[in-house]
Design brief:
Length: 655
């Protein structure tokens, strides 16, 4: 007999007894059956709830570990505390999502989040690094606009004749009988043009959020915690998506600028920049809209002025026909050929800017060349400047004034403009960031081709995720803004004293007070486009406070722009409100016109057009560079910097 049959034999009497019990006591048996079912159901519910709570606790613990990469306490001991008490839908740390900037929640092993500063996270630091890199690049571009036309022409490989005008008695180093010395000393207008990856002109733009959003989505589909990969992708995308180039336009002449005083120059500058907004710094985004109309108007204006010059030339030519020689005519022809040929050599960008002006510039260059020859011969006879000037500064200034008086009222030594083309490739461009070939992800291409890979390229799903992420309010959602990145440290009293000791002993007390106040403000007033002061001094202006409406570049800390800083510094330090000038153009009409060589501490150097700017001169360095204090838009605060600042206007306000 098998074991199974023996077991059945043992259970058989018990089964028979159960059957007899159920037959004899039906009510009791049914009650016992339902009671058993109820007990089983209760135990199941209790067990399920217990397992659910345990799973939630484990999930929260996992989120905490993802957030800090460690549960290390300040004492260095591990902790496995489970925070089970929380409000509904409140998590210790947001979980990673494809349309979230996930690295903002990741901290290094040694970091313990105490003050909640988002810049302490991995994502915050990468954001800060990229913003600072963009600011440094823009500062380099903007500083190049302060270079001389002569040096810029050399960098572009142009001949010197491309930036030669007429004799300018206000420019140092020029002689009326040496045409080769008549280099135009500064750029009259500076045009900034921004383009996207498709070559279309756009407003001033930053693609930092595009790059970070794109890298975030890509790494989420692979390994969003791979900080090294994320950083490599971001840096390579930035490098390959930014470029710029310079081009110099043709020389042109206006109706006269030698005899204008400061206020006349201001009015003339405002009239010439009617397309630009008045009442604040020339906003780059507005400039990009107005550039084409501005250039066309300047071309037509130059044509009409050239016609006027041509008429004047014809009259003077009739009076001096007997005096002109064959050599003069030959020089005119050579001048026309060289100026026409060199404009084609400036750069690929300058070709596009000058093609429209080539026809009109022929007559203009002819009349300009003739006028230059005539003025040369007249000046050589009437007002030759000796190579070595003698006498006091007052006598030299008087001689310069006499020279200017001998020139005709409509005399113009010539102007030249600079155009800067900046290309910033965005994610939404047809030839945008997605089309850039990245070396930093080549090793993953083979893995992405496998069937089990989560990455299927930039399809509708991943593209939509990037768009959702970059369109988020990063200040509201992550605490990241330009204002939280761009900072300058205030100067110490020792540093301020060192600057003050370098000032000339005979400098006026007003100038010393201005410089000391400006230096004391370094790092304390954020840059804010259009920002002006309401009262004197730091107190009462609430500089640095968060404001609801950010400026055109995303800054949301209350502060000043460059002209607002100058007006506020003069007002606060020496009680000179400068008539509450609200723009760089208005500052042109303040004080006395001086030369670059006459600058003293406290004087202003002004660029009213293009990326308009104004700086307060401190001193010349040993290397011959200019040291200035200014409200620095790229640094986001007041700073002291070495700048080229070869701007058109130099103003002395104080004695």
């Amino acid at each position: 007999m098998s074991k199974s049959r023996k077991k059945k034999g043992k259970w058989k009497p018990a089964i028979e007894k159960a059957k007899l019990f159920l037959k004899s006591k039906k009510k009791e048996s049914f009650l016992l059956f339902f009671l058993s079912l109820f007990m089983i159901l209760c135990l199941s519910i209790v067990y399920a709830q217990k397992m659910h709570n345990r799973q939630n606790a484990l999930n929260k613990s996992s989120d905490s570990l993802l957030k800090t990469s460690s549960s290390v306490t300040e004492k260095g001991k591990w902790t496995n505390t489970l925070h089970t008490d929380r409000k509904e839908d409140e998590f210790l740390n947001p979980r990673p999502f494809i349309d979230r900037y996930n690295l903002i929640d990741r901290y290094n092993l040694v970091d313990i989040r105490q003050d909640g500063n988002p810049l302490d996270s991995v994502g915050g630091r990468i954001y800060q690094e990229l913003m600072e890199r963009e600011s440094a690049d823009l500062a380099k571009i903007y500083d190049s606009t302060g270079d001389t036309p002569e040096h810029t022409a050399k960098l572009l490989g142009l001949k010197r004749s491309a930036i030669l005008g007429r004799y300018n008695p206000q420019a140092s180093g020029q002689s009326p009988d040496q045409k080769n010395s008549w280099a135009i000393p500064y750029f009259k207008n500076i045009h900034y043009r921004y383009y996207n990856g498709d070559g279309k002109e756009i407003q001033e733009s930053s693609n930092v959020k595009d790059i970070l959003a794109m890298a975030s989505v890509y790494t989420y589909q692979h390994n969003y915690l791979d900080e090294e990969r994320f950083r490599a992708i971001v840096n390579e995308l930035y490098t390959k998506s930014h470029s710029y180039s310079l081009s110099i336009g043709p020389v042109y002449y206006d109706q006269g600028c030698i005899h204008k005083d400061a206020k006349e120059e201001m009015l003339a500058e405002e009239a010439a920049n009617t397309a630009a907004p008045v009442g604040g710094e020339t906003k780059a985004s507005d400039e990009s809209k107005a550039e084409s109309t501005s250039e066309k108007s300047s071309e037509t204006t130059a044509d009409s002025k050239a016609n006027q010059d041509t008429k004047a030339t014809q009259e003077s030519k009739q009076a001096q026909e007997s005096k002109q020689t064959q050599e003069t005519k030959a020089n005119q022809e050579n001048s026309q050929k060289s100026s026409a040929g060199e404009m084609g050599e400036s750069s690929s960008e300058s070709k596009s800017l000058t093609e429209q002006a080539e026809k009109s510039s022929e007559n203009k260059e002819n009349s300009a060349s003739q006028n230059a020859e005539l003025s040369s011969s007249n000046l050589a006879k009437e007002s030759k400047v000796p190579k070595e000037t003698t006498g006091t500064k007052a006598e030299q200034k008087a001689n310069s004034i006499q020279e200017q008086k001998k020139l005709p009222k409509n005399y113009c030594p010539g102007h030249v403009d600079l155009t800067i083309k900046i290309t910033v490739i965005g994610f939404d461009d047809e030839n945008g960031l997605r089309n850039i070939q990245l070396d930093s992800i080549k090793d993953l291409e083979e893995q992405d081709q496998k069937p089990g890979s989560r990455w299927h390229g930039w399809d509708d799903y991943t593209v939509a995720a990037v768009k959702r992420l970059k369109e988020q309010d990063w200040f509201k959602d992550y605490g990241l803004s330009i204002s939280s990145v761009e900072k300058k440290s205030p100067l110490t009293e020792e540093e301020i004293s060192a600057y003050m000791k370098d000032l000339p002993e005979d400098l006026s007390e007003e100038r010393k007070a201005l410089i000391h106040f400006a230096l004391s403000s370094v790092g304390k007033v954020p840059y804010f486009y259009g920002g002006k002061a309401g009262v004197k001094g730091l107190e009462g202006n609430h500089f640095g406070a968060t404001i609801s409406s950010s400026d055109y570049k995303g800054r949301n800390r209350k502060g000043l722009d460059c002209s607002g800083f100058v007006q506020w510094a003069y007002w606060s330090s020496v009680d000179r409100s400068l008539d509450f000038a609200s723009s760089t153009q208005e500052l042109i009409g303040k004080g006395q016109k001086i030369k670059r060589s006459e600058l003293k501490a406290g004087d202003l150097i002004i660029q009213p057009s293009g990326e308009s700017h104004v700086v307060v001169f401190i001193k010349w360095t040993k290397e011959g560079k200019m040291l200035a204090v200014h409200e620095n838009g790229t640094a986001g605060n007041i700073s002291v910097d070495e700048v080229q600042a070869n701007y058109p206007y130099y103003r002395s306000i104080l004695p």
